[in-house]
Amino acid sequence: MMILPLFFIFCLFSSSHAAVQDFCVGDLAAPQGPAGYSCKDPSKVTVNDFVFSGLGIPGNTSNLIKAALTPAFAAQFPGVNGLGISLVRLDMAPGGVVPFHTHPGGSEILIVVQGTIFAGFVSLANTVYSKTLNKGDVIVFPQGLLHFQVNAGGTLATAFASFSSQSPGLQIVDYALFGNNLPTELVAATTFLDAAQIIKLKRAFGGTG
């Protein structure tokens, strides 16, 4: 009869112990593990660990995808380490696109603050949920699902996104397929694309083979 009460007491003390520390500012000089960075010595923590100013600066969109991502993940913003939150700024020139990609470590909420962005994601049932977003519109991308953003207007578009992880990760499908050294024949066999097109895409995304 005492097992259940003792179990709840154990859970209570376990939860309390987990919340003993106010924060765990990431020690960027130490290796990052599955749970994030180890904690920086509290005596060496300053207010600057909890402030990140990079999101006020537009990113350089002079690249292949005409878009720039400025992250405020734990690696750039050590104060969010262990808190399960982070941010990113997205700048897209006219014609800009963030190709299909996924964040394995967290869900994303995107809010448009300038311009027009067409965005969407694909569910595990291969259902597409997409819409044109204007200033002030918000869209959510569930964790791990493929999603994309395209500048749908003729002017610069800017958006900010928040994540349910301090290190959500990023894998862009095009770079995963064509930015590596996998043999062209293997990529052709697994994607059903023409070998000549694959070679062209490998050159564009920096791949070999």
Topology, element by element:
Layout: H1 3-18, E1 32-33, E2 36-37, E3 67-72, E4 86-92, E5 97-102, E6 108-114, E7 117-122, E8 128-133, E9 138-141, E10 147-151, E11 157-163, E12 171-172, H2 173-178, H3 184-191, H4 195-205
Antiparallel strand pairs: 1-2, 3-4, 4-11, 5-10, 5-12, 6-9, 6-11, 7-8, 7-10
Question: Care to describe what's here?
Answer:
With 209 residues, this protein is α+β, with helices and mostly antiparallel strands. The chain has helices spanning 3-18, 173-178, 184-191, 195-205, and strands spanning 32-33, 36-37, 67-72, 86-92, 97-102, 108-114, 117-122, 128-133, 138-141, 147-151, 157-163, 171-172. The chain folds into 2 domains: 47-169, Jelly Rolls (Sandwich); 176-205, no CATH class. The longest helix has 16 residues, at 3-18. 26% of the residues are buried. Residues 1-18 have low confidence and may be disordered.
Care to give the gist of this entry?
The protein has 209 residues and is of the alpha+beta class.
General form: globular
State the end-to-end CA separation. Answer: 66 Å
Q: Evaluate the radius of gyration.
A: 21 Å
Secondary-structure element string: HEEEEEEEEEEEEHHH
Please name the fourth-level CATH homologous superfamily of the largest domain: Jelly Rolls
Q: Helix share of residues?
A: 10-25%
CATH topology of the largest domain: Jelly Rolls
What structural category characterises the helix and strand content?
alpha+beta
Quick one: biggest sheet?
A: 5 strands, antiparallel
Main β-sheet, spatial strand arrangement: 3-4-11-6-9
Please count the beta strands (DSSP E, at least 2 residues each).
12
Count of DSSP helices? 4
